[in-house]
Specification:
Number of domains of chain A: 2
Order of helices and strands of chain B: HHEEEHEHEHEEH
CATH architecture of the largest domain in chain A: Orthogonal Bundle
Largest sheet of chain B: 5 strands, mixed
CATH superfamily of the largest domain in chain A: Cytochrome C biogenesis protein
Shape of chain A: elongated
Number of strands of chain B: 7
Largest interface: A-B, 23 and 26 residues
Number of domains of chain B: 2
Number of helices of chain A: 6
Strand order of the largest sheet of chain B: 5-4-3-6-7
CATH architecture of the largest domain in chain B: 3-Layer(aba) Sandwich
Number of helices of chain B: 6
CATH superfamily of the largest domain in chain B: Glutaredoxin
Largest sheet of chain A: none
Order of helices and strands of chain A: HHHHHH
Helix content of chain B: 25-40%
Distance between the termini of chain A: 90 Å
CATH topology of the largest domain in chain B: Glutaredoxin
Structural class of chain A: mainly alpha
Distance between the termini of chain B: 70 Å
Radius of gyration of chain B: 23 Å
CATH class of the largest domain in chain A: Mainly Alpha
Oligomer: heterodimer
Structural class of chain B: alpha/beta
Radius of gyration of chain A: 25 Å
Strand content of chain A: under 5%
Helix content of chain A: 55-70%
């Protein structure tokens, strides 16, 4: 009997008890009735990072807080709020880290300029090589 | 290209290798801190109005924090295991005269009552944050987390994770400094 009990304890994962027992918010797993509003909410959710499962968007994460974030986004979109206003609300709380969509500002401009600069350097190198080849 | 430039250029791969080595070694010595700090520190406590977890009619409102007395605002839950480890430190802070308000995240009053009976109850009031709305409004990303709110209702600091025995002294000093 005692062995059976020990076995049962091994089988039941203890971490199961470390999860909230409450049912998720309805809007965290339910789409909005208006397809256009749902599309706006989805687009935003795919570019907001989960603060628990870092590296996933809240659209992909099953963390409870991600679910609550999806619910709050759907509620606010349904209430007519602009997605970018909701993103700004998130950034004001969790920092720029929370957004997958980097803004163009003094700190991030190298990120946007880098591709252009790299293509320009590539063109310069190509021009030099072609000229040399033609001269030869 | 002169021989001299070629000689200098030959050292470049080694220099690049050493640079990468330093970068990797640096990452090993100082591990990446994955905690996401709240941006609300230094700003007024966002408005909220929560029902009491104790089953009485009192409400836990953000306005109540701007009454001249600094307080700790502790996010916790009965399902949160590190919160059990934190409980003795919260009780010690309460004994030292610190006012602690609790916000229970996604929790049921019956589970909370059992949790408080087992681990002690350091809270003046406990609000029920069923949809993590207040947690998000404060830029908090988990439980337990503790915010220090000064007497004017301004968020002064955030402590991520359980308050350990080694943190009690600093926290007490911070509360007194926020007077």
């Amino acid at each position: 009997m005692r062995q059976l009990l020990a076995l049962a304890l091994l089988v039941v994962p203890v971490a199961l008890y470390a999860d909230p027992v409450m049912a998720p918010e309805p809007l965290s797993y339910t789409q909005l009735p208006d397809p256009a509003a749902e599309a706006r909410a989805q687009a935003l959710m795919q570019t907001i990072r989960c603060v628990v499962c870092q590296g996933q968007s809240i659209a992909d994460s099953d963390a409870d807080l991600a679910g609550d974030m999806r619910a709050i986004i759907r509620q606010r979109i349904a209430a007519g709020e602009k997605p970018e206003a909701i993103r700004a609300w998130m950034i004001a709380r969790y920092g720029r880290w929370v957004s997958y969509k980097p803004p163009l500002d003094p700190l991030t401009w190298p990120l946007w300029a880098a591709p252009v600069v790299l293509v320009a350097i590539g063109l310069l190198i190509a021009r030099g090589t072609l000229r040399r080849r033609r001269a030869a | 290209m002169t021989l001299r430039t070629v000689r200098i250029l030959l050292w470049l791969p080694l220099a690049a290798f050493l640079l990468i080595l330093a970068l990797v070694a640096g990452g090993l010595i100082k591990p990446h801190d994955a905690a996401i700090r709240s941006q609300m520190v230094g700003r007024p406590l966002p408005a909220f109005d929560l029902a009491s977890a104790r089953g009485d009619a009192t409400r836990i409102r953000a306005q109540g924090f701007a009454d001249g007395k600094p307080r700790l605002l502790n996010f916790f839950a009965s399902w949160c295991i590190p919160c059990v480890g934190e409980a003795p430190q919260l009780l010690a802070l309460k004994r030292a005269g610190v006012a602690i308000e609790g916000i229970a995240v996604r929790d049921r009053p019956a589970d909370l009552a059992a949790f408080l009976q087992q681990n002690g109850d350091p809270y003046e009031r406990i609000g029920l944050d069923d949809s993590s709305g207040v947690q998000m409004a404060l830029g908090s990303s988990g439980v337990p987390e503790t915010f220090l709110i000064d007497g004017r209702g301004i968020v002064r600091s955030q402590h991520i994770g359980a308050i350990g025995p080694q943190d009690v002294g600093d926290m007490l000093a911070a509360v007194r400094a926020a007077q």
